[in-house]
Amino acid sequence: MSKKYKILSNFIKDMSSETPNVESYLFTKDNISKYELDIDINSNPLKHKLIEVNTCLKFNNKTKQEKKSYFEVVYTSIVRIEDGVTEKKDLQKIILCDVPTEIYEKIEKILLNILSDSGYPDVKFDKKINFNKLFTEKFN
């Protein structure tokens, strides 16, 4: 099956590493294993069958603890949709599954570099996100 889209370009739209003070850094260093990876995907239609797909990875501690750090990267893909794509479900699959699957390794590496450069060099993401599974669960 051939791809029904082409990624024309990717870029970091926004990134954030927030550690407000030394106490927050030390707390985060001791509790980094409690941090969770979240993903959010949204899109904006452009002209000429182009779509802006924004994939946001967040790594944060969801507790009410005040002394914590926050990490986020928004990675934008400019995607051209083939003329034959007319079904809404096909377009949803491209935006929510195919594009994120294709760019995930790169965005994960960017976030891990941000974490390492922010003083947390030993963070690893053990589980890989299965976008096909997530898409199937959401729409079937």
Condensed summary:
This protein has 140 residues and is α+β, with helices and mostly antiparallel strands. 35% of the residues lie in helices and 34% in strands.
Give a written overview of the molecule.
The protein is an alpha+beta fold and 140 residues long. The protein has a single domain (5-139), classed as Bacterial Protein-export protein SecB, CATH 3.10.420.10. It has helices spanning 22-31, 88-117, 131-139, and strands spanning 5-18, 36-45, 50-60, 70-81. A four-stranded antiparallel β-sheet has the order 1-4-3-2. The chain is elongated.
Average pLDDT, to the nearest integer?
Answer: 91
What fraction of the residues are assigned to beta strands by DSSP? Answer: 25-35%
Q: Which sequence of strands runs across the widest sheet? A: 1-4-3-2
Structurally, how many domains make up the residues?
A: 1
How far apart the termini lie comes to 21 Å
Would you identify the CATH architecture?
A: Roll
Give the tally of β-strands: 4
Task: Give the C-level CATH assignment.
Answer: Alpha Beta
Q: What is the structural class?
A: alpha+beta
Using only C-alpha atoms, the radius of gyration works out to 17 Å
What's the tally of helices? Answer: 3
Q: What would you call the shape?
A: elongated
Helical proportion, percent range: 25-40%
CATH fourth-tier homologous superfamily? SecB-like
Could you spell the SSE succession in H and E letters?
EHEEEHH
Could you give a short account of the major beta sheet? 4 strands, antiparallel
| CATH fold-level label | Bacterial Protein-export protein SecB
Low-pLDDT runs: none
